[in-house]
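In the design runs reported in the main text, the only information available to the sequence generator was the tokenized backbone. The following block is the verbatim input for one such run; it is reproduced so that readers can re-run the procedure and compare outputs position by position.
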């Protein structure tokens, strides 16, 4: 499953540079709430533990270009960007529900976070 998610993210990242590329959710996808459902294993960034919580959301679509941060706040380092229209796999949500932990651009789970602001991202569940 992770291999498939990796291939999906890598393919989407490659397509992100194409100006006319539009990646739409499947017809069965519906918006979902970003309410945490329980803690997931934490990730370490230096000495700071960054908790992520389970969520029913499996994917998030970028509604415009979105910065990828190294933690669940805009005070963390920007580690990349997703282009508008890209959909990526969600691996957790911040405790306050304001940030999605996603697969990183290299397809690995790590400290890659995007805003859950509904003007920037749209949560999707199958």
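Verbatim output:
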């Amino acid at each position: 499953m992770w291999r498939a998610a990796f291939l999906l993210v890598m393919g989407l990242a490659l397509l992100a540079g194409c100006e006319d590329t539009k990646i739409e959710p499947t017809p069965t996808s519906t918006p979902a709430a970003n309410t945490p459902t329980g803690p997931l294993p934490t990730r370490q960034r230096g000495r700071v533990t960054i908790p992520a919580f389970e969520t029913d959301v499996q994917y998030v679509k970028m509604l415009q270009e979105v910065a990828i941060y190294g933690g669940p706040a805009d005070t963390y380092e920007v580690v990349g960007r997703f282009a508008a229209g890209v959909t990526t796999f969600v691996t957790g949500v911040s405790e306050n529900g304001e940030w999605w932990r996603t697969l990183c651009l290299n397809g690995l789970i790590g400290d890659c976070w995007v805003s859950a602001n509904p003007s920037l991202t749209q949560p999707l569940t199958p």
